């Protein structure tokens, strides 16, 4: 999913006619000062990063004057908060908060629902997961019928929202649903929904994640990579999304990783090509336990064509400094696995001649397994590399396969050192 920054989400709220605090985005301390002067009252300055808990991490600060706003922005811009570089801050009016609510919408994927669910709570400002159930009102929405103002009033009424601002709360919830629907969101939240001391109700903060398939329909959002991640996309991440965005046949997911194994000797670095999120992650865990650093996480699942599998494999190999390649099919897939076999063989035949003795471990299980394994064996038998190929009999053996990968990497690196000494 593509996560929007707070200021981007609030721009969509404003377009929907939803009340938000007065404010603008600044990229320099001087811009922050000018915005504070324009607002003409105390301001709050919030870092714009893809992470929750900004306040506790020191990413939300207050300023009483424009000059103070400039100093605060200078301390935040360029800083690293929760591992993320701060490049923008949102400068907004400081609200006189009377109380806080929460409103959010997610997709209920249960078989008996498969629809949006609107949630409202009188306990705003905290994680909705920690709120007692008697303080949350929910409604599954029929997408053909929609979410009406009286639905919102009913939700607010269930939790006894005071009459002076129940209508404003309801209008915000309706605007939230319209934004959710119009932009193909998977998740959208107002937290907190702020009631001010003068009885105004505004969206104090927001979170919006757009479905991957919706991004291409909304170029105005400026989303470069439709992935929700804690770090900005790398060049390889961008290339992987370019492969994916116009071809929805299966998945070609790729993300570079920074998973330094602290307090542990790193044996080598593996380019990892998985299938299926959960099973593939078991393979990553097995490699890490053997002291192998995983350079990336790639996933080709959902029955992609050989062309997407090939491109994913080429992305994995394009990373500098990898000491091995693993195709981690730690699942018995019902997809036609010979597409994987053809795509991987093409990539290996292009890459391995440049890397004599390179370690490769291929695990492929599921539909058309026998034919797929034969394609892998025939397509790689004349290559000068350390290649081991396995099928369904090893699909649960993450520990054993990771140990084999380590063994091959150690042999390969020793061979490389020996060649270096001779040279």
Integer count of domains: 3
| Major sheet summary line | 7 strands, antiparallel
* Cα separation of the termini: 49 Å
Shape: elongated
Q: Please identify which CATH superfamily of the largest domain we are dealing with.
A: Succinyl-CoA synthetase domains
CATH topology name of the largest domain, in short, is Rossmann fold
Number of helices: 12
Percentage of residues assigned to helices: 25-40%
CATH architecture tag of the largest domain: 3-Layer(aba) Sandwich
Strand content: 15-25%
Structural class: alpha+beta
Which CATH first-tier class of the largest domain would you pick?
A: Alpha Beta
The count of strands amounts to: 20
Radius of gyration: 26 Å
Could you report the average pLDDT, rounded to the nearest whole number?
A: 92
Please give a structural write-up.
- Helices cover 36% and strands 25% of the residues.
- The chain has 423 residues and is an alpha+beta fold.
- The chain folds into three domains: 22-93, ATP-grasp fold, A domain (Dna Ligase, domain 1); 97-220, D-amino Acid Aminotransferase, Chain A, domain 1; 233-422, 3-Layer(aba) Sandwich (Rossmann fold).
- The strands form four sheets. Strands 1, 8, 9, 10, 11, 12 and 13 form a seven-stranded antiparallel beta sheet that branches. Strands 14, 15, 16, 17, 18, 19 and 20 form a seven-stranded mixed beta sheet that branches.
- The protein starts with a strand and ends with a helix.
């Amino acid at each position: 999913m593509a996560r929007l920054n707070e200021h981007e989400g609030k721009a969509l709220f404003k377009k929907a006619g939803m009340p938000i605090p007065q404010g603008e985005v600044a990229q320099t301390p001087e811009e922050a000062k000018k915005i504070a002067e324009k607002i003409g009252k105390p301001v709050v300055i919030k870092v714009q990063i893809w992470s929750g808990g900004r306040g506790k991490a020191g990413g939300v600060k207050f300023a009483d004057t424009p000059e103070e706003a400039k100093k605060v922005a200078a301390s935040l811009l360029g800083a690293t908060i929760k591992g993320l570089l701060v490049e923008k801050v949102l400068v907004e009016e400081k609200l006189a908060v009377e109380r806080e609510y929460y409103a959010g919408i997610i997709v209920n994927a249960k078989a008996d629902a498969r629809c949006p669910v609107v949630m409202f709570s009188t306990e705003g400002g905290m994680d909705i997961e920690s709120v007692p159930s008697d303080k949350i009102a929910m409604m599954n929405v029929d997408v053909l019928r929609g979410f009406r103002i009286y639905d919102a009033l009913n939700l607010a009424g269930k939790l006894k929202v005071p009459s002076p601002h129940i209508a404003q709360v309801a209008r915000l919830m309706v605007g939230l649903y319209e934004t959710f629907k119009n932009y193909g969101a998977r998740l959208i939240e107002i937290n907190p929904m702020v009631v001010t001391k003068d009885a105004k109700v505004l969206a104090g903060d927001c979170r919006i994640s757009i479905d991957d398939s919706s991004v291409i329909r909304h170029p105005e959002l400026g989303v470069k990579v439709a992935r929700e991640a804690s770090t900005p996309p790398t060049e390889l991440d961008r290339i992987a999304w370019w492969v994916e965005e116009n071809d929805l046949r299966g998945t070609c997911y790729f993300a570079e990783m920074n998973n330094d194994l602290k307090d542990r000797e790193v044996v080598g670095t593996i380019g990892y090509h998985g299938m299926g999120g959960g099973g593939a992650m078991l393979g990553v865990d097995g490699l890490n336990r053997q002291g192998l650093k995983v350079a990336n996480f790639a996933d080709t699942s959902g029955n992609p064509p050989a062309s997407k599998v090939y491109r994913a494999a080429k992305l994995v190999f394009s990373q500098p400094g990898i000491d091995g390649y693993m195709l981690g099919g730690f699942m018995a897939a019902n997809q036609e696995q010979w597409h994987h076999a053809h795509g991987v063989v093409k990539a290996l035949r292009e890459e391995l001649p440049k890397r004599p003795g390179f370690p490769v471990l291929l695990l492929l299980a599921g539909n058309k397994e026998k034919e797929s394994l034969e394609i892998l064996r025939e397509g790689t038998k004349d290559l000068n590399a350390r290649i081991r190929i396995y099928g369904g009999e090893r699909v649960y053996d993450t520990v054993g396969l990771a140990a084999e990968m380590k063994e091959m990497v150690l042999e390969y690196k020793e061979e490389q050192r020996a060649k270096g000494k001779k040279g």
